[in-house]
Amino acid sequence: PWSRTTGMDRAADNHYPTSCTEVIAARDVPSIAADDCVLFLCATAPMLPHALLVMAAWGFDYKSNYVLEKDRIITGYWNRNKHEHLLIGVKGHIPCPAPGTQWDSIIPAPVGGHSEKPVAMLEMIEQYFPTLPKIELNRRGPVRPGWSAWGNEVEHDPDTTRRRPATVGGHRGRVGRDRHGADERVPHAVAGVDVAHHGVAVG
User: Fold this and answer.
1) In the prediction, which pLDDT does 123 show?
2) Residue 12: DSSP 8-state
3) Which class for 163: exposed (0-12), middle (13-18), buried (19 or more C-beta within 10 A)?
4) Which of 99, 135, 140, 183 has the fewest CB atoms in 10 Å of its CB?
């Protein structure tokens, strides 16, 4: 039951609709990913095995990971979690960042809105791949400049975004882009999605 004693007030299901791992893995992410593409996949500690299954189902090979260090306790039953994982998966031929430009593997990432992706993470991706098309799945809020976005809680610029619902792997959501971003029909070289404690947030 929902209560601060049980910790269920922090459950993703209390904030937005969620999907099971099988549904997430079946989403047609390959249709929006370029042949040469890198995936940055956020995962909480309990969902790490599920995130790796999703990554493989989407056609990406696991390469490495970052630790997103939180500024306060988030969730956890076996320990007092102050981190999440940012997994890196690759398909095709994507070069590593140039030597000397790589970020440290531990990234300070203050806790924001529920399942909101850390700004530092997005800035790192932009630094690594400044010219490649990028899409953020399950975006919450306005579309980030230079990106496309998909999700139930994407806030749109009416001058640049079509109003019809869009579909990824049979799941309906909204697709938006900023004034200079790529249209959702263009293959995207960088994809990001948030894997929450109970699966992937649908917005």
Assistant:
1) 93
2) G
3) exposed
4) 99
